[in-house]
Design brief:
Elements (H helix, E strand, L loop, with lengths): L1 H9 L4 H4 L4 E4 L4 H9 L4 E4 L4 H22 L9 H18 L3 E7 L3 H8 L1 H18 L5 E6 L2 E7 L7 H7 L2
Parallel strand pairs: 1-2
Antiparallel strand pairs: 3-5, 4-5
Helix pairs in contact: 6-7, 7-8
Length: about 180
């Protein structure tokens, strides 16, 4: 049933499934069902008897919530993680590496000519360069690595299961 599916989603090992917003729409309006949906992690509960304007309004609120959450975790310009969220992800990577006796590496990259680009070509062009650099960084690391923009022209990569020497290749690839 829907509650079973919601429970399985919230227990998923994949963050994108576990954190997916879920709106329960049910013909059973008993308070116990609403409470159960909340306890299982539903984002909202809408009764089937709700009229169209209410449903649209509630869905709009869920979309705003998702957008706000995304802005709190991802840099709006590059789509990489925010510094705050990198700390959260970094703690997870560190705990996993410590628990399993694995490696953990952190790579910091800075575009040294950023200020010159801003002065010479303007902020809009500098932003285009930063977006391209962020894509290069993301393309050079593994999907499971965490990439964040930690300053105007600075990126950090946290890579679990990666020895320091293994981070040299992606870093050199970016310097070209």
């Amino acid at each position: 049933d829907g509650f079973g599916l919601l429970a399985r989603m919230r227990e998923s090992g994949e963050a994108r499934i576990r954190e997916l917003p879920v709106v329960v729409i049910s013909g059973n309006e008993e308070p116990g069902n609403k409470q159960r949906a909340r306890e299982l992690g539903a984002t909202d509960f809408i009764a089937k008897s709700a009229d169209a304007p209410e449903v649209l309004s509630r869905l709009d609120n869920v979309l705003r919530l998702v957008s706000a959450k995304r802005e709190a975790t991802h840099d709006p310009l590059t789509g990489t993680l925010t510094p705050h969220y990198l700390v959260t992800e970094g703690r997870k990577h560190f705990a996993h590496a410590k628990r399993h006796g694995g490696e953990l590496s952190v790579l910091a990259l800075r575009l040294d000519t950023y200020d010159e680009i801003v002065r010479g070509a303007g902020k809009e062009i500098a932003d285009v360069v930063i977006v391209r650099v962020s894509k290069l960084v993301v393309d050079k690391v593994r999907t499971e690595d965490s990439v964040a923009r930690t300053g105007a022209a600075t990126f950090m990569v946290v890579a679990a299961g990666t020895a320091a020497g293994q981070m040299v290749a992606p870093a050199q690839g970016l310097g070209r």
